[in-house]
Amino acid sequence: MTIGICNNEEITRRELRRICNQLFVERDLYCEIIEFQNGMELIKFSKNLEIVILDIELPGMGGIEVKNRLQRLKRDVIIIYVTSHDEMMREAFGHNVLGFVKKEYKERDLPMILVSALEMVGHFVILQDDIDSREIAYIHTEQIYCRLFLIDGREKVLRTPLKELESELKGTGFIRVHRSYLVNLQYVEEIDDGMIYILDQKIPISSRKRFKVKKAYENLKE
Predict the structure, then answer these.
(1) What pTM did the predictor assign?
(2) Residues ≥6 apart with Cβ < 8 Å to 49
(3) pLDDT tens by residue, 34-56
């Protein structure tokens, strides 16, 4: 998951980053945070963002215009305004605007509204080459490469260690079932006799991981 913080004041961006990071640590989530000094920078990168923490008053393109442009570009991004200009809230409302946090109350209020945003986004990440984690059934490591098996039958190869992908996919429904396999529990069809059945394939579960994997699968199906 990638979150954008857009504010022209460095100290404010730093404070917002700290608040976000504290929440992610508490919830054991991996989220990338990218800072922007102005709206134009954010717009250029907006296709990679799921959540935007945005000020209304920005140099050049203001926060309301940023919201309007995101709508015109049909960007499916959740917007949270952190601002001292509450008199402009009515104008700032729009598609995907989740709410407003007054700057003086950001320590108290931002974590609460950010939790709602995270739940709305859903548990997924975009990997390199614009690969959506929701489209991956399982991953198999092949030495220094990883082969991603997608639900539509395609395969993607990344020069990324499985351990690194496991870290990136933390909190998205993937579980390590074997030293060579990472599986998306959403697409598991059955677990039986130490094997996972997924996409007409059988994947072994290491003996020391069997209880954990079975429990995670049962929790998902409840």
Answers:
(1) 0.55
(2) 2, 3, 4, 34, 42, 75, 77
(3) 999 999 999 999 888 989 999 98
pLDDT of residue 115: 82
Residues of the chain scoring pLDDT < 70:
87-90, 95, 119, 122-123, 220-222
Per-residue confidence (pLDDT) for residue 24, from 0 to 100: 85
- Measure Cα distances from 111 to 79, 114, 147, 158, 187 in Å: 14, 5, 36, 34, 31
- Count of alpha carbons within 13 angstroms of residue 71, beta-carbon side: 13
Q: Contact 114/125 with Cβ under 8 angstroms?
A: no
Q: Locate tokens 């929701």: which residue?
A: 134
Q: Rounded to an integer, what distance in angstroms lies between the CA atom of residue 70 and that of residue 134?
A: 23
Q: 214 φ, ψ to 5°?
A: -65, -40
Locate 132 and state its tokens.
């959506």
Helix (H, G, I), strand (E, B) or coil at 173: coil
At residue 40's C-alpha, the angle toward residues 25 and 101, to 5°, is: 45
List Cα–Cα distances, 2 to 33, 37, 118, 213, in angstroms: 6, 17, 11, 28
Beta-bridged to residue 108, according to DSSP, are none
23/26 Cα distance (integer angstroms): 5
